[in-house]
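Q: Structure tokens for this one, please.
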Amino acid sequence: MNKSTILVILAFFSTYVIWGSTYLLNKIAVSEIDPMFLAGVRFTTAGILIMLIAKILGKSLKVSKNQIINSAIASFLFLVYGNGVFVWALKYVDSGFGALLASTQPLFVLFLMRLIDGKKMQRRSIFGVALGIFGMYLLVSQNEVRTSEDTILGVFMIFTCVFSWSYGSVFVSKANLPKNFFVSTGFQMLIAGMLSLMVSFLLGEPWSSPYHWKFSTQMSMFLLIIFGSIVAFTSFNYLLKEVSTEKVSTSAYVNPVIALLLGWYVLDEKLTIQSVIASVVLLTGVYFINTRKRLGKNKVTTKPQKV
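A: Here is the predicted structure, written as tokens:
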């Protein structure tokens, strides 16, 4: 087994397991600190660390004005709105439930590619979309969702986050970004961190020192920065350059399973029979969408938006 194969395997492990656990970590952290402040601290710290590592590795940090602008757009769609608002919604939605809703992203990407690029849907994709819509219906039609206004709001906002990440995916597939995936990740993290802190300040969110946080929140933030932001997000960008997008997007139906199990085991989140059935239907739909024949040379990031 050569070095490249080992790196690909480790990168897949990161995107499967680590990103699957970030739903739980965000749920724990947002119970004490506000979402935009959380995102600001997490992404700014991760961005600085990534840039330092890139410099140590001898990577050039020079980028064009156009690349900076595109990085800012991508960071807003992926991290500021797509992730920041998603974390806010976890105040009202279980982490496993939120992960399942996020797994609908390939459906949104498919529709956007149809609208923007005029790409025709194949039969497998149409069948996958039908299953996905039915799975979403099963999820959101449960009594626990319909009888709680806060949960309904949380579900709606998560869907707007999924749309934001989906549009960002289509945008990034065509945008001029820094060629080195490590440098590109660093700039996106730094920009997202600064934007999130600005939004947090404008919203009047209380800022507090990490020394005053609970130990569980401190550990969650540490794991989100080191593993969720640096290791997993860098692994994700690496995989997009090394293997097909369809293979990378398989995390769309692995992350929710891990998130569901962790939420149930660690936070005692309720796991209903209807949720289990809905997850099977929904993830089967995602499978049919992601295993369609390649649509062309353009890469599209179909990863659920919860880094």
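A few notes: Residues 3-290 form one domain. The radius of gyration is 18 Å.
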